[in-house]
Design brief:
- This protein is α/β, with parallel strands linked by helices and about 325 residues long.
- It contains 9 helices and 13 strands.
- Helix 5 crosses helix 9 and helix 7 packs across helix 9.
- About 45% of the residues are buried.
- The structure holds nicotinamide-adenine-dinucleotide.
- Nicotinamide-adenine-dinucleotide binds next to helix 1, helix 3 and strand 7.
């Protein structure tokens, strides 16, 4: 069924997921297609890091349309967004440290993408955007638990700067062109189908050499790791429960684990004995210059709307590692 042929009373349930073949995006596809109320889901993805197998189990679902295209193709994007009620925007450069060698990447594959998307929304009349921002917007606040309206935010990576710029651009479009938006500053998201991240890297390294593990920094970096199912639930909860025209939410578990603790979990999942694996730290308090070693997110705002996480950081990580191990063995 073509997206434009839908009935008016279906309004509200036609979603386009930009970056929908990626790690987080594919879980939105699962969640939305599990809901019989969902009328249509369109995945718009250039498959640069997205994978066919992430969404291929829905191939027989008539409600799913897959558009293999790039967000830089403005005409195709405009056509694709038209007829949808909600944009879920996830497309971005996934390699945060890539900007060290390619300083323009987060502007090109981050800020420009959101600019093209809000413009497509303005032209097509699609009003609601759910945007995957990130905790990188804050910069380095150490042990301070940051709130969404934190004063003195100064991103220290081009990734964080791009996310912050995108939030501001979306805010302006909400005011000027009647869009409504929820922006989500996720902690680190983990779960099945991950194609990047610290657990994924450790597991892959240990498969090559199970006797030693290179760890960036001093291993004391400490952050929240949220299961992708809790992340999707948070976004959908804010989508349906927040009444603001534009609102930003921190989304995290409220507990934290260190990189060395993650390494221990990876060993446990890989069935390796700690005595037989040498941890080789690169030193310094952070993995690379734009890394924020300690992240503390206050999540009262989304919890006050009624959301809560099912998994702690360690539980989320353990589940994610089990799934990754099975995927790497497949
Ligand atoms: N994974 C995390 O821990 C985390 C944390 C905070 C925020 N985020 C944000 O959530 C979003 C999704 O992250 P993810 O981990 O699923 O990453 P991902 O790389 O798995 O997904 C991104 C998807 O976007 C697609 N894409 C990228 N550039 C595109 C372009 N120009 N045109 C069309 N498609 C394009 C990719 O092919 C991929 O399918 C990103 O914006 C990321 O910054 C992720």
């Amino acid at each position: 069924m073509g997206i434009r042929a839908l009935m008016a009373d279906d309004a509200g349930s036609r979603f386009i997921i930009i970056g929908g073949a990626g790690f987080i995006g594919s879980h939105f596809v699962d969640h939305l297609l599990d809901d019989p109320e969902t009328v249509a889901v369109t995945v718009y993805d250039n498959f640069s890091s997205g994978q066919d197998w992430h969404i291929s189990h829905h191939a027989d679902d008539q409600r799913l349309t897959i558009i293999r295209a790039d967000v830089h193709e403005q005409d195709r994007l405009n056509d694709a967004v038209s007829g949808h009620d909600v944009v879920i925007q996830l497309a971005a450069n996934p390699d945060i440290a890539a900007a060290v060698a390619d300083p323009d990447i987060d502007f090109r594959e981050g800020t420009v993408l959101v600019r093209n998307i809000v413009e497509a929304m303005r032209l097509s009349g699609c009003q609601r955007i759910l945007y995957a921002s990130g905790s990188g917007v804050y910069g380095d606040f150490g042990e301070t638990e940051v709130i969404e309206d934190q004063g003195g935010m100064r991103p220290i990576s081009t990734y964080g700067a791009s996310k912050y710029a995108c939030e501001h651009l979306i805010s302006a479009y909400c005011h000027m062109f009647d869009l409504t938006a929820r922006c989500f500053r996720f902690g680190n998201v983990v779960g099945p189908r991950q194609t990047h991240g610290v657990g994924y890297d450790f597991l892959r390294k240990l498969r090559i050499d199970p006797t030693q593990l290179a760890i960036l920094g001093d291993g004391q970096q400490s952050k929240s790791y949220i299961h992708v199912s809790d992340t999707v639930a948070a976004v959908m909860h804010a989508h349906t429960h927040s009444t603001e025209g534009f609102e930003v939410f921190n989304v995290a578990t409220g507990d934290y684990i260190t990189v060395t603790e993650i390494a221990d979990l990876v060993l446990e999942c890989a069935g390796l004995d700690r005595q037989n694996v040498n941890y080789v730290y690169s030193g310094g308090d952070r993995g690379w210059k734009g890394d924020v070693p300690v992240v503390r997110l206050n999540t009262s705002r989304i919890r006050n709307l009624g959301w809560s996480n099912r998994y702690s950081s360690a539980e989320a990580f353990r589940q994610s590692l089990m799934a990754l191990r099975d995927e790497l063995n497949a």
